[in-house]
Specification:
Length: 818
């Protein structure tokens, strides 16, 4: 059970932030006191008792440590991670694995340079120091050895020990050894882990290299020795006797806790000399493959990696050679065309996404932003096990011949372990996914999922990894068994599918191409173009899947919760590709998945929040309607640049209607033009928003008072008076601040056409009936200036009057309408 958290106000005080929407917004680690980039919310479902999000992109684990320290919580002890079956991409599907050790590389002056995080699942992630805080990713520039300050301080007469891994280095350092390592693990001889700039630190030193007892360890030791031999005084590669397979210095020290035997063993080791290069013969390779083919499955698994390195081929190629040597039938990978050799060179994320987009556009007519969404979803399928959510890719069309089948075939040709089908039973879904871990590409889904609740339920279960299981009774004894349903799934349908499927989908609506639209005919056979894309995607996956694990990208507030979940893995990939793709992905999400009927309450509060941000970035207490719209339209991640069903930018009138519910109306503002002449334009006062900000944007609680009526040189209002909190009108004895302000509202070509709004009343009177409902006076009537007209209206009648105006009625018609 997580340790109970303090109350929200106490959390806000300890974190130096404020309470907002059931959580706390506070400065992130290393940020200024005014920063509000860290969101912390209590959660019973979270292992550590809270969930957080860094809007500044700070490392989540660093943020968690920061919060626990500020809240004076004990050090978090994570639950033991659980391991699931391996998926078809060859990557193990594992639950979240917390950091259990951190190793800091320091420069000569002891300043931080690199920090390596080790997780409970024995995964390693690098972070760099930006001068103020740790950020994900390796530092740029030259590498430095681990424990560099201690290495520099060691006399040249004292030997230096080189091990594979920071943890082993720390273990020897505790015994008094001068020891170091390089970041990234064992070098395969290509110089990507042990780089040339490391060599200079070992000039004129005696070096003992302690390899791990496996193929990569021995290869790493030989590569390091080859690099240090020309510059060091003496280099020895020390093979420790009696180590078990894959054993290392840790196992040795279990029987030599003081390291005395280690010193003697190192001193007895011969000086390193380069081995004579012996060309490997084809006969030797074939003999080794024959030897492997005769082994049991378990024995082969133990020798597989080392044998592949010895021959110099990939594991996939070795598996294929062993199968052929056994004389067995083709594997399912060969039969389905899943076996492939990853691209030999590094593949950049943006380049691969661009290549996918260009390919899709050749063969398919997609809606706006559809090609970007399709490419991002494809790479999500390749890195499925980096994420906790897998959205469906849903191609939907109103009629036949709109390109759905071509879309399915393109995913089939570019995705990982794809299987294309036009019909599948519920039982076949979970059994096939559990057995082969494919990417399901299901055409004509409307023909068999529309009324198939069991099939829809099985598909839906694979949307989140935690729930991606179904339980069925199997065997003669009907024993219950879990079947894994975690797989990427693309669907195509004529018309809508069940709401539950659509809600979990990124939907691309296809239309029949016009005569002027041309596409390349998609051949039925596989091509080198598609094979190349798959090979590049496989290499990209191998290089980047770890970088994508646990990433929490920024999601636009305009998306509902489910849409944010669906797009999160796609945003993570887009962010990896750079700013251009990050912007394109969020524009695509807003275009394809933002609610057309966005919740009205959410829209209004979002507008208030954005207005508060706009005023915070401006000087002065006024803003013109035109400048207000420009600021709203500028943020493409918000709904204002593509508002409502039309998808057009929000207008002054629409803004005014949203704000009218808060009793906030546009005012006449006096501003100077280029020649210094005064002119009147429509706009808003900062003070008009104060109470709405307090009620709907700022933290709840505390003393509240009504917003006072303010005088302003821009609108000619009289001196400010106190206001009554209950009905927000001026005191009975207040002067009329509208005496010199005869009009208000949003400017319009037609002053009687519906956009102009009556000014909110500022004085209570009695003896005058409401001009709208004509009922006897009750003391709540309010004066409203409208052009040259002065009206007296009840508070409720003001809204009805505005609705009549919105229907295009002039004042007399509005008043008769009641």
């Amino acid at each position: 059970m997580p340790t109970p958290l303090p109350s929200l106000p106490e959390m806000a005080r300890l974190l130096g932030g404020e309470v907002v929407n059931g959580g706390v917004l506070a400065p992130g680690p290393g940020h200024s006191e005014d920063d509000r980039s860290l969101s912390v919310k209590p959660s019973r479902d979270a292992e550590c008792g809270f969930v957080l999000n860094s809007f500044a992109g700070d490392d989540i684990q660093v943020c968690k440590d920061h919060v626990r320290q500020k809240l004076k919580l004990p050090e978090f002890e994570p639950a033991k991670p659980t391991t699931k079956k391996k998926n078809g991409n060859g990557a193990g599907a594992k639950s979240y694995s917390p950091t259990i050790a951190k190793y800091t590389y320091r420069n000569v002056d002891n300043s931080p340079h690199l920090q390596v995080h080790r997780t409970a699942a024995k995964k390693f992630f690098q972070h760099h120091w930006d001068g103020e805080m740790w950020k994900p990713g390796a530092p740029k520039g030259e590498k430095i050895p681990y424990r560099l300050p201690e290495l520099i301080a060691t006399p040249l007469t004292k030997p230096v020990y080189v091990v594979e891994g920071e943890g082993k280095a720390d273990l020897l350092a505790e015994l008094g050894f001068t020891v170091t390592s390089s970041s990234g693990g064992a070098d395969d001889g290509k110089g990507s882990k042990w780089t040339p700039e490391l060599n200079a630190y070992f000039k004129d030193r005696t070096v003992y290299i302690l390899p791990d007892n496996d193929g990569p360890g021995r290869k790493h030791a030989q590569f390091v020795a080859k690099n240090l031999d020309p510059i060091a005084k003496a280099v020895r590669v020390v093979e420790l006797p009696g180590l078990p397979p894959k054993g290392d210095i840790k196992q040795w020290l279990e029987h030599d806790p003081a390291g005395a035997k280690l010193v003697k063993q190192c001193e007895r080791a011969p000086l390193w000399e380069p081995a004579a290069e012996k060309p490997r013969t084809t006969e030797a390779d074939e003999a080794l493959v024959s030897e492997l083919a005769a082994l049991s499955t378990l024995a082969y698994a133990k020798r597989r990696e080392e044998a592949a390195e010895e021959i110099g081929i990939t594991l996939t190629m070795l598996d294929k050679a062993v199968v052929e040597a056994k004389g067995e039938a083709k594997s399912v990978e060969d039969e389905e065309g899943w076996a492939l050799e990853p691209w030999p060179d590094e593949v950049q994320t943006a380049d691969l996404l661009d290549a996918l987009c260009e390919t899709y556009k050749q063969y398919l007519i997609l809606p706006e932003h559809g090609v970007e969404a399709m490419a991002l979803w494809c790479l999500h399928a390749w890195t499925l096990d980096a994420f906790d959510i897998s959205p469906f890719l849903f191609f939907r069309s109103p009629l036949h011949r709109c390109g759905k089948t071509n879309a399915m075939r393109l995913i089939y040709r570019t995705g990982p372990r794809t299987v294309l089908t036009s019909n599948i039973t519920p039982a076949a879904i979970f059994r096939y996914v559990d057995l082969y871990h494919p990417t399901l590409v299901i055409d004509e889904a409307d023909s068999f999922f529309k009324d198939n609740e069991e099939g829809r339920g099985i598909l839906n279960s694979g949307h989140t990894r935690d729930a991606a299981f179904v339980i069925r009774c199997v065997g003669d004894n009907s024993e219950p068994r879990k079947f894994n349903t975690w797989a990427a799934k693309a669907l195509a349908s004529i018309g809508k599918l069940a709401v539950t499927l659509q809600d979990r989908s990124v939907i691309l609506d296809l239309k029949r191409k016009r005569p002027d639209q041309k596409v390349v005919k998609l051949r039925k056979t596989d091509t080198e173009e598609f094979r190349t894309l798959r090979r590049k995607a496989a290499r990209w996956r191998d290089d980047n899947i770890e970088r994508l694990r646990g990433v929490e990208p920024h999601t636009p507030a305009a998306l509902n919760d489910r849409a944010q979940d669906n797009w999160e893995p796609l945003f993570a990939i887009a962010d990896l590709a750079g700013d251009s793709w990050a912007r394109a992905a969020r524009a695509a999400a807003l275009k394809l998945s933002a609610d057309a009927e966005m919740d009205v309450e959410t829209t209004k509060t979002l507008l208030l929040s954005d207005t508060k941000d706009i005023f915070a970035e401006r000087e002065g207490d006024t803003i013109t309607s035109k400048a207000f719209l420009t600021a709203l339209h500028a943020d493409e991640t918000k709904p204002w640049s593509s508002y409502g069903k039309t998808g057009k930018p929000i207008t002054e009138r629409q803004v005014a209607r949203l704000l009218a519910d808060f009793k906030i109306y546009p005012r006449n503002l006096k501003i100077a033009d280029e020649l210094g002449r005064q002119k009147v334009v429509k706009g808003y006062l900062r003070s008009s928003f104060a109470e709405a900000f307090e009620a709907y944007v700022l933290p709840q609680g505390g003393d509240r008072s009504a917003t006072p009526l303010l005088s302003s040189p821009e609108n000619g209002l009289a001196e400010k008076r106190s206001a009554t909190a209950k009905i927000e009108v001026a005191d009975r004895n207040a002067s009329n601040p509208l005496e010199t302000n005869k009009s208000s509202g949003v400017a319009d070509q037609n002053p009687l056409g519906g956009e102009t709004k009556p000014e909110k009343v500022v004085k209570k009177v009695s003896g005058r009936p409401c001009d709208y409902c004509h009922e006897s006076p009750d003391g709540t009537e309010q004066q409203a200036a409208y052009g040259t007209e002065t009206l007296w209206l009840h508070p409720d009648c003001i809204d009805r009057f505005l609705e009549a105006q919105d229907d295009g009625l002039d004042i007399p018609e509005c008043l008769r309408r009641y």
